[in-house]
Amino acid sequence: MKKIFSMLVLISFLSVPAYSATFQGGVTEQGTSGSSRIIDKNTGEGIGGADITLPKQNYSTKTDNNGFFELDTQINGPSIMSVKKPNYKPFSVTIDERTLNAPIVVGIEKSNASGKAIDTNMYHLGDNSYSDLSANAGEFAMQAIGPFYTKRFTLKNIDITKPVYMVIGSIIGIDTAMARSMGQNKIPNAFASPPEVYFNGNKISEIQLNGDGQRIRLPKNLIRKNQVNEITIKTGRNLMQTAYIDYDDIEFMNIFIEN
Ligand SMILES: [Ca+2]
User: Fold this and answer.
1) 98 half-sphere exposure, CB direction, 13 A CA radius
2) Around ion ligand 1, which residues have CB less than 5 A away?
3) Residue 236 CA to ligand 1 centre (angstroms)
């Protein structure tokens, strides 16, 4: 039931128009008109000196003293925008040309002691071979590092009596049948198996859809407290291509742990 609910929330987020919207960790609210702005999610105050980056466009800017900023660049189709500020959780959101034409307000949240940023870089998995009709194909920023990504990290100050989540800030390019049925790509005759997530050698999840702030619960019995843990994300394969392996080309950024 909980899974169904999460899916509904995700679906409603994906289908909400981006005009004058406030993005707060996957929750969309009606914003006010005016310039785009980064605010503290809890106090509502503008955050000055935050770094705004569009990795694909190789574009970056900073907010002014009151948190306002402008995106003086062109984008075509969904693209990942990242927001970074010391002492705040790294944040990213998938935007498109409609977002660029209307002001957006992004609420970011102070990091807490038990949360941990694992990796704030952007990665491309796959083989650099993909259809122009693929989800977000026009927006791929960089060369593939191969079909999988692995990161090792220690989990200190983790409270395993509470739920522990791995969060993927943003992910684009997934061409599963579900992504296709949601209108996230336009490939008529092919689809891919979903990316798989492994934690300490155990498969814990599959990612069916593109989107922001996707949470994957880490099974308590697999967590190694104060020791090295390992996350692997393996991209899917084009299930209609049998002559050779065609990996699904995807990009993601901002992996962190929430507790
Ligand atoms: Ca491919």
Assistant:
1) 8
2) 126-127, 129-130, 246-247, 249
3) 9
pLDDT means per 10 residues, the chain with 259 residues, are 44 39 42 74 96 88 95 83 92 85 89 78 89 65 89 90 94 92 81 97 97 95 95 96 90 92
How many angstroms separate the alpha carbon of residue 73 from the centre of ligand 1?
28
**pLDDT for the residue 31:** 39
For residue 162 the two structure tokens come to 């509470």
The CATH code of the domain at 116-258 is 2.60.120
Instruction: Output the CA 139–ligand 1 centroid distance in Å.
Output: 14
Q: How far is the CA of 77 from the centre of ligand 1 (A)?
A: 19
DSSP string over 131-183: -TTSTTGGG--S----SEEEEEEEB-S--TTS--EEEEEEEE---BHHHHHTT
pTM over 0.90: no
Closest CA to 214 of 149, 167, 172: 167
User: Which amino acid does the sequence have at 100?
Assistant: L
Give CATH for domain 2-108: 2.60.40.1120
| Distance from residue 126's CA to the centre of ligand 1 (Å) | 5
> Residue 2: its pLDDT value, please?
44
What single letter denotes the amino acid at residue 126?
G
What's the confidence (pLDDT) of residue 141? Answer: 62
Q: How many whole angstroms from 213 Cα to the centroid of ligand 1?
A: 24
Q: How many angstroms separate the alpha carbon of residue 175 from the centre of ligand 1?
A: 10
Query: Residue 216 Cα, ligand 1 centroid: separation in angstroms?
Result: 25
Domain boundaries, the chain: 2-108, 116-258
- CA torsion sign for 120, 171, 11, 208 is negative
